[in-house]
Amino acid sequence: MTDLRTEAVTPPHEALLSEIGGVLSSVDELQEYLDRLVNAARKHIDGCDEVGVTLLVDGRPSTAAYTTVTTLEIDAIQYQLDEGPCLEAARERHEVIASLSEGDDRWPRFTEAVRRDGMKSLMAFPLVSGGESVGALNLYGKEEDAFEHFEISLARTTSQRAADALVSVLHLDGAQRLAGQLEQAMASRASIEQAKGVLMALRGIDEHEAFEWLRQVSQNRNVKVRDLAEQVISGVMKQDASAAAETTDGHRPERSPAG
């Protein structure tokens, strides 16, 4: 059970690093770890509204985790155009800061294409460990100069920990198995996004709260998020005595999607 009094006074950097700590023993744990990473970064990094993780597998980029579909859409534009700050960070192995509300000579087609998405600032940090680049951690802000006052060392430490975890998994299981896991994750995204939409409509919550509900309930019930999403979509999740008795954070009763 979470002690809310302790959580309230925990410095953001300590809370973030605690949430993304631990060692991955296999690629099967990767998706859960990356989902935890992007949501923790969004929660604790000042100025950050959305987060995504770009992975390079055999040189091909894909978004392995994201906080909302806006993140996914911006990343997809980069991959289609083969230009953008996230790709530059991953390929060139250096930090990139970009203003998305103005044109940028480095990626003119990209900045023109993403103006409508409402994100005005972006920072991308390369995921490099042991001389090996596996992708980038991408931070998005809705305000101009959103990251002007944020603690850059925190983002650097976060990206380094993520890179170390990713590279260790690659060495254990290999790139081919990682590619297979990413394909499965992409296949499950449609169900998760649909379930989030159901929760948003029925419970009057936003996209972040919908995913947090799925994440917490999946932990309580010891089921995978994608399996829980299928239950939400099919209407299996109904309010009953056992559901009412469960809690998501140790303080509030869990409500069904229709509750």
TrEMBL record:
Listed Basic and acidic residues bias regions: 248-259
GO MF terms here are: kinase activity; RNA binding
Q: Where is the ANTAR domain?
A: 172-233
Task: Note the InterPro entries from the entry.
Answer: ANTAR, CheY-like_superfamily, GAF, GAF-like_dom_sf, GAF_ANTAR, WH-like_DNA-bd_sf
Q: Which residues form a coiled coil?
A: none
Instruction: Show the PROSITE patterns listed in the entry.
Output: ANTAR (PS50921)
**Which protein is depicted?**
GAF domain-containing protein
- In which organism is this protein found? Knoellia remsis
